[in-house]
Structures are given as structure tokens and as C-alpha cells.
Amino acid sequence: MNVYERLENDHRRQRELARKLVETSGDSPERRELFAAFREEVEAHADAEEQTFYAALIAHPDGQEKARHSVSEHEEAADLLEELAELEMSSGGWLRKFEKLKDELEHHLDEEEDEVFPLARRLFDDAVAARLGAEFEERKAAEKAET
């Protein structure tokens, strides 16, 4: 599986977890469990993606701008995740902040799939995409093991 397929699989999982989280209410065990899974998935994905895919993209002059933009969006998401972790899940503010994160995340994922991946496909041949996919998977597993 190449890097694009691996990343898109994660994107589908993130979208699904976010959709399910929005449907929860209050400080419920379901919301706590889903948020923990969502946070772990988003953080491990972003860290592994930065260390593999975006590191390779930044190495290309034509890829630097898009890569840096995407990494800055990862930082914004990380900040929102931290704020959510500190808020009371039963408050209306928690759900509003999560919906903001969900909207920003969906924008980021769409942008990656519609703009960054086509650019990377022009810069990376199939062998590089395959190698990056394997490196991403390995790095993501390591990130999850550290949490």
C-alpha cells in the first residue's frame, strides 16, 4: 500500500470518529472513549505524517510551501485537542469547540487529498510512495506505542 492509500485510510477513520463524537452528549463514557480514540488517532497520524511524508515533501523545493502549511494546520489541531482535553465534556462549550476542530480537520483532510497528494504524486515516483507508506505505518505504530 502506498503512502496515499495509507493516509486516506486514516482520513476515513478520523472523519468517522469525528462524526460519531458529534452525535454524543454530555460527559458520557461513550464520549470519553471516542474522544480518547480520536485524539490518539489524530496525534499519531499527524506525528507520523510529519516525520515521513511531509519531511520528504519539504525536501523538494516545489513541495515546501504546501508541506509547511499542512504542518501548521497540524499544530492548530493539536492546540484544539489540548483545549478540549481540559474542558468539561458536559459543557456546551466542549461540543462547540469540538465542532470547530471537526470543521478544521475536514478542511485539512480535503486539502491534503485535493491539493497536496496530487502535488506529491508529481514529485514522488511509485517506489518512493511505497517506501513512504511503509515508513508512515511503522512510525505511526511507534507513536501509538508511546502513548
Concise description?
The chain is an all-alpha fold and 147 residues long.
How would you portray this structure in words?
With 147 residues, the chain is mainly α. The protein has one domain (3-146): nmb1532 protein domain like (Four Helix Bundle (Hemerythrin (Met), subunit A), Up-down Bundle). The protein has five helices and no strands. The chain has helices at 3-22, 29-58, 64-86, 92-123, 126-146. α1 (3-22) packs across α5. It is elongated, with a radius of gyration of 16 Å. The chain starts with a helix and ends with a helix. The model has no long low-confidence stretch (mean pLDDT 96).
CATH architecture assignment name:
Up-down Bundle
CATH topology: Four Helix Bundle (Hemerythrin (Met), subunit A)
CATH superfamily: nmb1532 protein domain like
Note the total helix count. Answer: 5
Strand content: under 5%
